[in-house]
Amino acid sequence: MPKKIPLVDTDIHERVQYQELLEYLDEPFKHYIQNCHWIQEKHMPYTQPSVAGVDRADAVIPDGRPAGSDLSFMQEQLLDDVGHKFGILTGALDPSPSSMHGWYEMAAALASAYNDWQIDKWLEKDERLYGSVHVAAQDRDEAVREIERVGSHPKMVQVLLPIDDIMWGDPYYHPVFEAAEKHNLMIGMHHNEPPVYYGKWPRYFIEWHTLIPTAHMKQVTNMIFNGVFEKFPNLGLMMIEGGFTFIPHMMWKMDQQFRDLRHEVPWLKRKPSDIMKKHVRFCTQPSEELSKKDFMSLLEQMGTDEMICFATDYPHWDYDSPHRALPNLDRELKEKIYGENAKKFYPKIPNSRERYDEGTSRL
């Protein structure tokens, strides 16, 4: 009987409720939430397309709490049911400290409280779960201090930055990457509410949702041409929830520009496509419906089968099932995309191929 494939899910959204952060906050920040009912401002003008908002209706906790807010329910509905080997927590981007416009002190306090809550309530409660360090990166020095504070935790695998209105490749933010590299952390980027229409919002949600990959493309381009991966050779970047079918176009376009305009970025010593292959990974979700022929053609155009990593995006409404999201692939390729690529990317995740038959998924 063939051994099952260990699934590494690179995008699971755990959700905090603001009241849960109180025990991890100092004054006066605790007061602002407890007595002033502060919540982070949001900008999206649309409603989400499901009755449960951004989440699956069946993922809402039976007692009425939001989806992703209860570990036991998530274990039953996702980790145990699918049979995860490992899962990477990416937060629910509410709060998203790095997306706050102003009040940097509050953002930094929220980031620290969130990290402590995440470690206490999730990472230390389930050995399958690994976490993301939340920071208020607009205050670069505070972000570095937070990475120094919790980055050495054995189950923190990446620093999470939102894709919003800051281009993170700017040299001003390089100390954040230096601190991440020091603690063997990768960088994870997940869109929050990026304005994708020339700095504004398109008229309809369907336009915004279609164009999210363009925000991801901007960040990858910015990180590469600003020399982040030449400066920090052990750093990796995981692009979360933007899909992957645009990768070949990005490689061709950046390589062409590099041939014509490389004099402008003399610190770049390698072709952008080679940098992408070595340093950048893309979560599969949301995957377009592809035939096996389409999928294999994309891999051939990328020139590697190691750049994409499976993600469910649980508990969002456009969740990708590991049984249905991708075409039926050959076993060796399936092992890479559903587990090995992510295990190879994150240095802190156990990476032993011989344990395929232990706690594996039903793939």
UniProtKB/TrEMBL annotation:
GO terms for biological process: secondary metabolic process. The keyword Hydrolase applies. GO terms for molecular function: carboxy-lyase activity; hydrolase activity. The keyword Plastid does not apply. It holds the Pfam family Amidohydro_2. InterPro entries: ACMSD (IPR032465), Amidohydro-rel (IPR006680), Metal_Hydrolase (IPR032466). Keywords: Hydrolase, Lyase. It comes from the Bacteria. GO terms for cellular component: cytoplasm. Residues 62-347 form the Amidohydrolase-related domain. PANTHER family: 2-AMINO-3-CARBOXYLMUCONATE-6-SEMIALDEHYDE DECARBOXYLASE, ISO-OROTATE DECARBOXYLASE (EUROFUNG). This is Amidohydrolase. It comes from Halobacillus mangrovi.
